[in-house]
Amino acid sequence: MSYLEDLFSVAGKTALVTGGASGIGRMVATALAQGGAHVMIASRKLEACQATAEAINGLGAAGRAEAFAGDVGSEEGVAALVEAVRARTERLGILVNNAGLTWGERYESFPYHAWARVMNVNVTGLFHLTRELTPLLAAAASDDDPARVVNLGSVMGTQPIADGAYSYTASKAAVHHITRTLAIELSGRRITVNAFAPGPFQSKMTAFATGTDEKAARVGARVPLGRIGVPDDIAGATLYLCSRAGSYVTGAILPIDGGQSVQHGMSLFKD
Prior knowledge:
Rossmann fold, single chain, seven-stranded parallel beta sheet, alpha/beta
């Protein structure tokens, strides 16, 4: 194995990716399997998970994927998901908390219940799943190779952007903060905790804005680097944080947004 292969390899690691059937979760799961990991994909839609796992295994990757149903939107759902993971492994090297919901509505009519529904999945479920799986993460951890938790935040949790998704943007800011909190909490157990803060990517969640090439180009034109994200952007970040290359990084909120997190539109002295 070459130096670069060794540095960025996740071979032999066992990973769980929630919401891994589509979108960024699928990009993460594919990257981990390509890097040699055994990837468990869980989401509410079992058939979609199975189709994704089959597609990943059809790539001839160094690792493999398996699928099962899982819902982090309730206490019972988290408990069932934890039991499903425990039935399959005693050591969890990587946990990717990707499952998420959004809700769009104009300010004047944004519904009360949209807060609980979004927060339950994006924040509460993320925290409790991580807590319940901490013993399995600790069992896989060492000084030289910590276990990894990667949470899915958003540029909308970094910048004061709502676009009608008020509970979503607040939830992602909470994800960023709990990421930093857990990075300290779990450091003594040799578990790193980091978050992605993606900008626009093509996914079911953003299909209303990026579902066609024309729409994607329109959104990309607002990004400083002039395009929306692609799967390799997620793959590179995933392999970095989850391999030996990222073993000394914890508490980081990694922007994968083409410069949107530093985009401000202000000028003090120039026209």
